[in-house]
Fold each of these.
Amino acid sequence: MIEYAQASDEVRAVYDDILATRKTDYINNFWKALAAHPPTLRRTWETLKSIMEPGALDPLTKEMIYLAVSVTNGCGYCTASHTAAARGRGMTDEMHGELMAVVGMANETNRLADGFRVEVDERYR
Amino acid sequence: MIEYAQASDEVRAVYDDILATRKTDYINNFWKALAAHPPTLRRTWETLKSIMEPGALDPLTKEMIYLAVSVTNGCGYCTASHTAAARGRGMTDEMHGELMAVVGMANETNRLADGFRVEVDERYR
Amino acid sequence: MIEYAQASDEVRAVYDDILATRKTDYINNFWKALAAHPPTLRRTWETLKSIMEPGALDPLTKEMIYLAVSVTNGCGYCTASHTAAARGRGMTDEMHGELMAVVGMANETNRLADGFRVEVDERYR
Amino acid sequence: MIEYAQASDEVRAVYDDILATRKTDYINNFWKALAAHPPTLRRTWETLKSIMEPGALDPLTKEMIYLAVSVTNGCGYCTASHTAAARGRGMTDEMHGELMAVVGMANETNRLADGFRVEVDERYR
Amino acid sequence: MIEYAQASDEVRAVYDDILATRKTDYINNFWKALAAHPPTLRRTWETLKSIMEPGALDPLTKEMIYLAVSVTNGCGYCTASHTAAARGRGMTDEMHGELMAVVGMANETNRLADGFRVEVDERYR
Amino acid sequence: MIEYAQASDEVRAVYDDILATRKTDYINNFWKALAAHPPTLRRTWETLKSIMEPGALDPLTKEMIYLAVSVTNGCGYCTASHTAAARGRGMTDEMHGELMAVVGMANETNRLADGFRVEVDERYR
């Protein structure tokens, strides 16, 4: 993990943009780990920043979708950090509970559809 | 697949509830396949109906989360049917594009976090 | 896909063992595809034959476990072929329905456990 | 995590049913975590109780299928708790070893089938 | 799917870069589908182009790694297209067979490690 | 976990072969855990040894493919041990960074292909 004080100019430029964009003074471990490979750090941050901007979907909805994927992939780090991010954007306990219920149910019916080998309906093609 | 006309009373009761709840005259293949095991049909429908009701999250947000999970699991049937359902609830092309961008990015960073073996930050524990 | 008539001696030896072990006259597509790389064909068949023999678990239980994994991985070929194999060993409609119900539920609670970031209980360590 | 002593009436009713059904005096962490969202707690417990009852499949077989799915999904909590549950229902070391062997092999051949892009045999459709 | 002739200027600029970079006259379906959301098309292509360039790893090795991931995720489209791409870069039948053998084995031992709940050795931390 | 000193003759024979083949004096935890079921230990070691031998692909390439799969499956133990193994065979920081970039990207585009429901091009069939 590369700390801010040890960072090369290339890495520090990304760290500074993270701090400014997020209006924070904290670089989380994910970025410090990616800094081991600066092109991956820069590319990942720039893509993430662009994708998570407000657009047709609002930032909280995007964070909850991010969390739904992270839970489905069983990524412990991502589940922890995106739960925090979604709460920071306004996700309440009730919203979290409903989100988890939908994620759990989707995982269940995904397997039922595959297990019963359901063919796609003509109207959904 | 059990068609409406062939359905037992137990199965038909579920089909009727699907038709009434969704205000449609169409039973999609997923339910016709699950009807091979009536307790699973009934339980799955009742749980799904309850989870997808409006609550702290609106139905469109729930459908997009459902779709995010289905895509992440690579479930073809579920991706097709929940894309249709989300569009039916108002998902535009622009929203679909942003949803896919978030889903793709989350799948990428989930693997980067696991691959670089990133430890959870103290503040996210 | 390598058909029996075109098979090299090395491949044919495996095919003959499949036919004799399974008391069938049919080589399914999986083996014909693997025959493109004979060492993988031989190793896979020999390991599979050994693992699926009766032991502390009976062959039907093993087939149902195989099917549970295949459904969870969303492998269409494997779901189709192991559903057939389990039925051939005695899986009834009722058993299939209960198997799918357990597989679906396990996929749901797996995600709930990850999503709520549940710590392992002291007694399960 | 909601402890028994802090639980609301709604949550305590579920806890009491878990204790009575399982003839135990221990609520494991999974349920204490789900209690953060009582409707998800209640629904999950009721569905699980119903699915894991003896039926066409016996409870030990159901637990081993549950474990096979949990291992395949890489769910650490679920693997730990369902290994304990299966042992509690009579899974021996030998049965556990064979179960893991089948799970490992199924994961291997699932990928081989997908990687060699094997088409489903006519007879399995 | 957006064909070249129907493409907006923004989409056509990406298509032209794909054709020039790959020295081909063929746009494959993946890009035509992504063109439904031009920012995702452009970002995905630019990132992919940059990542797949020769670097510390040669392009064939990168393609085989891409294929290994695609097979593990059970992505049918990706397995088909990256098998073709790897063959185009020199992957022989023998290399393909060994690649699949490693992918299959890794999937098997991943589950065994999770199933036996193996703790990370001190020296690998 | 079965230590060398406690191992039965059957287990010790495998341990001795691991030590000799790898020219090391260290048995890692994976094998000590598998030793709980000696047939799985022996079969897994023998298959792994055979698959990871130099062939059409060199051992470092095989290790990186192994790592790509392990990261994609989110297997923490396997990611730690195969990162170490790949480094032992010559993987540099730069190669590791590029490997992770490809793995991340492949996971992203796998989901985009599934999410946009891209049909396989005629020429890739």
Amino acid sequence: MKGGAVQYMPVTQSMFLIAETRDQPMHVGGLQLFLPRDCQTAEELAEEIHEKFLAATDIQSTFLKRPASPANLAGYTAWQQAHDIDFDYHVRRIILPRPGEIKNLLRYVSLNHGALLDRSRPMWELHIIEGLADGRVALYSKIHHSLADGVTALRMLQRTLTTDPDDRGGTAFWDNDLLRPRRKRPSAPKPSLLSRVTGAVGSAVEMADELIGTVPAAAKIAAAGVFDHDFVAPMQMAPDTILNVPIGSARRFAAQDWPVERLRAAARRHCITFNDVVLAMCSGALRRYLDDQDALPDDSLHVCQPVSLHTEGDSASNAITAILARLATDVADPAERLREIVASTASAKGVVRELKPLQSLALGAANVWPLAFAPVPGFVNYTPRGFNLMISTVPGPEEDLYWNGAKLDGCYPVSIPMEGLAMNITMTTVAGKANFGIIGARAQLPRLQRILDHLEISLVELEEMEPLQQGA
Amino acid sequence: MKGGAVQYMPVTQSMFLIAETRDQPMHVGGLQLFLPRDCQTAEELAEEIHEKFLAATDIQSTFLKRPASPANLAGYTAWQQAHDIDFDYHVRRIILPRPGEIKNLLRYVSLNHGALLDRSRPMWELHIIEGLADGRVALYSKIHHSLADGVTALRMLQRTLTTDPDDRGGTAFWDNDLLRPRRKRPSAPKPSLLSRVTGAVGSAVEMADELIGTVPAAAKIAAAGVFDHDFVAPMQMAPDTILNVPIGSARRFAAQDWPVERLRAAARRHCITFNDVVLAMCSGALRRYLDDQDALPDDSLHVCQPVSLHTEGDSASNAITAILARLATDVADPAERLREIVASTASAKGVVRELKPLQSLALGAANVWPLAFAPVPGFVNYTPRGFNLMISTVPGPEEDLYWNGAKLDGCYPVSIPMEGLAMNITMTTVAGKANFGIIGARAQLPRLQRILDHLEISLVELEEMEPLQQGA
């Protein structure tokens, strides 16, 4: 594999290379499950995927990019374009051990998600996984955060899918052909509820002139922190918890899906947003999980929610900001907890609403800046932090999707734990399912999979409690 | 997993933690193949191994050690003893994809050998691998070099084996029970030819008083460098080759075995040592491989051969020195090449012969010191080096060995490529087979598996050429 042209690397990308350590790999992952089509075995589907993927040798530039070498000590400042791909390395096949249960699959993902990507080649991997007793075939993909954020990665995967079960044009997600707009594709996902609230509809990268507005935006945040007691200002102290400790590289991954309609019904019942339902589920589940571990803090957890600034047009870049909210995990009563969560997110959105995209980006950077210092040993233990964990929601297409006739039957995000942020929860909605992916540092967060049961219990609580009296 | 007592870590161990980078993982590996016993399927053998291994919960202290945390910037200076093991993490099961050929197995090892071990837990992994079409079951193990060198790791594995095919006491290599000397074990391996030459029979670590002899030893080396033109003095310039470049983390692993008797017959034919036969095979193979890559240097490759200072009594420590030899890869004629190799190793042994163990250790350190600087970016490209690659030979038991009745049918070492040393060849003799394991940096050494064919060609050359006229 020889190197090609060298290309400038913006700091929004290189920061993910610089922040990466052996205990904090900075790649995002995705786990997709497919049902073989009629009269097709899982083995045949896996072979078909492998064949079609390896036939896609005209490769999108994103999947040929690698940090220019030799690395200099000051960090990576350029991308180099590889000419070809060592498919034997990047595309891996494996069969799960018996009994081929979902837990065997989640364990495989856990064990592989802690391994760093090789920087001397394009930083992505695809694992084609057979052996599930239920007859499905799984794809686990890893891509470095410097190449794509979770939203972008999800869109890359979805671009290979179609709403037409009879379409047999299935190909690899790196196929350059996918960038040509002549094929029938699923409708673009609607902007997320949050990004619609922000009104962020421009490509942040191209709007450098907006940077001038950053200082007034910061002043606005300060004002909100003073006058609105529901607003969680950046750098406000979040409690010490077992989520906020140094971590090792080993991971634990849990995933499950719920019908989107159940969450939507709960939102309608209480006249709250879909996102508030997600936060309320997470809040109840985290409260129970921490209580089980004898580690529930007296004060509420604070959550950071990344908000995508992606628009329908742009594709291959990182563009996020974030808001902070109080999860009310210190409140035992589910109704009162929900009320506090709704008040907190409404206030945070109030601040983001009036910001332009680049201003929001600055807000995001202010909220997450302690992360940059996390790899310094000892830092995590002694620094006040603004939040305890990140929870992301990523909306995808609502229709059923197919790859070469095989139906997508689950699409779980696998995100990034960090020093001081040992757990991450990301939820994507695809084809009527709300897919939760929970990734945690293995040694620090035992029995993480119990959160799945706790999420169900919390959703049932929302479904059964009296409709929320807002403003009460 | 909670931490226990803290224990001093000597520099001979911590150096492997300090020298480790994401592109240069410092763990050694082993790949063992087992034949199921009569009337047993591969699946049943794999289940049996898994069950028996997980039942071994009284764990040797070596497999509970991890670097004390938090790490300090000056390096790791202490071991911490874990109380228990997260078996779900350390013991992994997998089934190879079809067609289940040896190349599928070697690829699995290649892909996993580039991944760093987690420092927040005891630094080892065991992979139980099924799916080989030939019905064998493979065990791939990784252990950090700070815990054990290749010789020690091989002995740990062998301690679980017995010469009795009817013995059903098979257990895990971490079983504390194995350290109690009441079980029937294979005879201890004979000291290697090289270590017998050195006369190194003491435990180097305990002989600190010998350090006083180090300066005269250094003077002796200098004298040999001046008076004996066959002796390769430390730090003499070795040629620039594609083996001596910065590397990425991805690996390529090739392995094959030959009957020990074929190599012994070649040694007898030419009245040379077994080790000279190994070097001659490697020399011919490397000459062909580099020539294929259009990368054969005008000057000969220089090889570094670690020499074990292990004695029969000591077990769990690093104790090696090294000699340097000229491989004569610049010589086209096989007979002349062999003659030059024999002259070079005889001379190097001449120096080592008169050294005491700690003096030999000092010689080894002098020969390998540039490695310590390799992780500094740019260093590799600009520094003269004393050798181009390391070739190790590790003798094991000669008898057939069994685990719970399953016959050991191959035992390949998986060693460590480094910055500036992109290839490593290690050979172990076990139960009548000479098992070559060749590990290389993936991007830097394409088509590495061709060396296996070249080794065979070189051995045939040795078998067919006229007996060597020594001193001619």
